[in-house]
Amino acid sequence: MYIHNGIYKIKMIEKTINNSIQPVKSDKTSKLILSLLFDGIGMLSYVLPIFAEVTDLVWAPISGILLMTMYRGTIGKLAGFFGFIEELVPFIDFVPTFTITWFYTYVIKGGTGQE
Question: 52 with 45: CB under 8 angstroms?
C-alpha cells in the first residue's frame, strides 16, 4: 500500500509540473534572442585576451550542446559540430554561429522541421 501510494504521489507531481509549463508563444523570436545572447557570450573572450583560449575551451562544448538542443535534426547536429570547432580554433570565434544557424533555419529554410 505504501509503495503504491508513493507512486501515486509522484504521478500527481509530474502531472502538476507538466500542466504548469506553458508553451512559448514565438519559438522563432525566443531562439533569435537566445542566439544573439549566446553569440555575445562566445565573443566575451575578446574582453580579456589573456584568458581567451581558456574560456573558449570551456565554452566550446557548451556551445555545441546548446546548438544541438536549440535546433533539431541535421541542422542542429551540424551547427553543434561547427560551433564546437569554431570556438576551439583560435581567432575565429567571432563568427556568430548561433545567429547564422537561426538565419539559415528560419529565413532560408522557412523553419521547416523545427515545429
Answer: yes
- Transcribe the chain into DSSP letters: -HHHHHHHHHHHHHHHHHHHPPPPS-HHHHHHHHHHHHHHHHHGGGTSGGGHHHHHHHHHHHHHHHHHHHS-HHHHHHHHHHHHHHHHSTT-TTS-HHHHHHHIIIIISTTTT--
Tens of pLDDT, residues 53-64: 788 888 999 999
Looking at per-residue pLDDT, the higher value among 48 and 108 belongs to 108
- pLDDT confidence of 45, banded at 50, 70, 90? confident
CA distance 52 to 114: 33
Cα–Cα distance, 6 to 90 (Å, whole number): 53
Please report the pLDDT score of residue 10 as a whole number.
58
Chain length of the chain: 115
